[in-house]
Amino acid sequence: MTPTIRPRRLRTTPAMRRLVAETRLHPHQLVWPLFVGRDAAPISSMPGVMRHDVHSVAEVARQAVHAGLGGVMLFGVPDDADKDEMGTHGWLPEGMGQRAVNAVRDAVGDDLVVMVDTCLDEFTTHGHCGVLDDGGRVDNDATLELYARMAVAQARAGAHVVSPSGMMDGQVAVIREALDADGHHDVAILAYAAKYASAFYGPFREAVASTLQGDRRTYQQDPGNRREGLRETRLDLAEGADMVMVKPASHYLDVLADVAAISEVPVAAYQVSGEYSMVEAAAERGWINRRMAVEESVGSIVRAGADIVLTYWAKELAGWLK
Ligand code: PBG
Prior knowledge:
binds ligand PBG; Aldolase_TIM; alpha/beta; Delta-aminolevulinic acid dehydratase; TIM Barrel; 8-stranded parallel β-barrel
């Protein structure tokens, strides 16, 4: 038997494979998450990732421009003494997130899209994404008001994009209204539309020195719920999201493909801390080829439908793509 139809013909040389590649990565579609606190320090659960101070973050933001990255996603990490029940430093002008945005905008101007996490978990003593009611449950509607304040503070500090990640119902609508009322019509909202209560955020919790008590299962989605990812996305689109995100990425490629199929706005995916650290740990032991695993994992996220990928490898990967 000699087959006449041979898919292998298109795999014969690197040039042929390049020509017929269905998925192409570009630095412009990569967003680099950066942590910013009072002092710079390595994050032991994420080898190769630093927590920055306002000076070093300005420097790495310039490196991000040089690498051709699309943007950065900033996370403010307050001192423990600046945490309280409500997460007040989330919206004070001198809060760590606002200072980080300021420093980065000063360094890069409009050469990079400056995004910032709009969520209170880094700033609350209990580590939850909102304020608690008398029963210790996160109070959705009381939290919305605080997100509105936080988004306005971030816009005033110079954020191009605010990014509500707390999974409160109605958060996109409330933030849009507050931004517009304060004159920030051009500040965009990247909505964490489908965000799951995932074990893969583990290393991040160290990065932001989270003091989380309990879990987030009353507000983040159940990992088994695929259809619900679409419901959450449609709600955020109706509320005015300018971009939508699926998170985590690698274990939720089905959700990502669903969202990409219905979204008329750009779709982002967040390759989270646990996805990063698993590859780093296996590569360090020599169990996988690090560069191939990084390219394959980010490439698969794009193949599934992501226009934009948030990844801790953004700068290094951009260097390889050049
Ligand atoms: C919440 C938030 C989290 C991450 C980004 N934003 C943590 C959580 O929901 O518990 C995780 C990011 C990562 O793991 O890389 N502000």
